[in-house]
Structures are given as structure tokens and as C-alpha cells.
Amino acid sequence: MIINKNTELEAIKKTISKCEKCSLHLTRNNVVPGEGNVDSPLVFIGEGPGADEDSSGRPFVGRAGKLLDKMLKDWAGINRNDIYISNIVKCRPPKNRVPTDDEMKSCIQYLESQMLVIKPKVIVTLGATSMSYFTNKKKISESRGKFYDWYGNIKTFVTFHPSYLLRNHSMEKGSPRWYSYMDMRAIGVMFRALQKGKNINEVVSAINSRMKESGGI
Ligand code: SF4
């Protein structure tokens, strides 16, 4: 049977739009299920919607989202429409606090269902919450710029959340922004290689060598 990804994702979105599994439904204006190219080899996952996302129902449209768009375009050479973007929780935590473990547990089945439909080659985790869920790692400064295994053949690649970079402007070598630049350049290389159908393990190996040689890790 041929699976239509858009149909399956629409069904998941419909379920999310009515979800009341955790208390975040009480304060949300809109659910923010995710959007983008469902055939992309890369999916980007952040923590949760902020105020702009809650108002619009779209992920990464506020200041951090605009920075992400710019980093993708200028550093990775990727158009935002070429990738899929979502979050660990689909409703805004009040005052943009970190989602609780219970909220994440309640919501994660939606993200997992989305990933099973999209079947990306690499999930790029944005920030500590997403990193922690996908990799069990605790320190982003030690874990970023590296690949980890998730389910099946899906890899994860850890980098900073753009909202963290809004508070860190220095591009000095070794700064969070400089490391993000290195990560985004690597992400651009992996995107183009995977789009051409290159083997994921070969891509991982090439990126790892590149990061070591360039001082990115
Ligand atoms: S955050 Fe997730 S689990 Fe909680 S109400 Fe929203 S969609 Fe449901």
C-alpha cells in the first residue's frame, strides 16, 4: 500500500488540534504541530512553541525562528521550506518555561508518530530539551556537532537553539555562535549529500572528519 505522508500527517495534526492530554491545552491559543517538507532528509526539533507560534499555529516564526531561517540560508545554504520543523511539545508552556517531564511524556507520541511518517535520515535537535529527549545527553556544549543513534537508521545531530544565540552575539572562535556556524555548515553539507541519495553512514563519517579537521568539535 502506498502511504501518502501528507494524509497521515494531517490525521496526526487533527488529533493534536483536539488534544487535552496535559494542562498546556488550558492556556494555548493554537496548537503548533509542525510544518515543512515531508520528504526532507532533515527534520529540526526544538523545545516548544513561544508566543508568536501560539498566536499563529506555526513553528519558529518569532525572533528565534527568524534567526534560524537566516542561519539556514546564510550558513547552511538551505531554504526553510526544504526541511520539516517541529517541537517536543505542541502547545506553548506558559511564560515559555521548559515543559515538565509529564507534559513531554504526554506529547511525545505525536512527535514520534510524525517521525515514523516522515522517516528523516537525520533529526537536528535544537537546544537542551530536544537533545536530552533524543540522545539522553545532558551537556549541549559537549554534545553539539556530533551524531547519535535514535531508532532504526535515524541519526540525530545536536546543535544550539536559536533563542540561546539571540543572547550570545559573539562570533569569536569557540563561542556558541561560532559553533553554530560550524554546525550549520555541516548541516548544509549533510543535507545536499543526503538529497543526492548518499548513504547515511558515509555522510556521518565524512561530516565527523570535516568537523575534526575544521575544529568544529
Ligand atoms: S502539549 Fe501535547 S499533550 Fe499537551 S495538550 Fe498540547 S498536544 Fe496535548
Describe the structure.
With about 220 residues, this protein is of the alpha/beta class. It has a single domain (about 5-215), classed as Uracil-DNA glycosylase-like domain (Uracil-DNA Glycosylase, subunit E), CATH 3.40.470.10. Helices cover about 45% and strands about 10% of the residues. It has helices at about 5-15, 50-55, 65-75, 100-120, 130-135, 140-145, 160-165, 175-195, 200-215, and strands at about 35, 40-45, 85, 120-125, 145-150, 155-160. A 6-stranded mixed sheet has the order 1-3-2-4-6-5, with helices on both faces. α8 (about 175-195) runs antiparallel to α9 (about 200-215). The N and C termini lie far apart (about 45 Å). The mean pLDDT is about 95. The site of iron/sulfur cluster has 14 residues, from α4.
Question: How are the SSEs placed, and which strands pair?
Answer:
Elements: H1 5-17, E1 35-36, E2 42-46, H2 51-56, H3 63-76, E3 84-87, H4 101-118, E4 122-126, H5 128-135, H6 140-143, E5 147-149, E6 155-159, H7 162-165, H8 176-195, H9 200-214
Parallel strand pairs: 2-3, 2-4, 4-6
Antiparallel strand pairs: 1-3, 5-6
Helix pairs in contact: 1-4, 3-8, 8-9
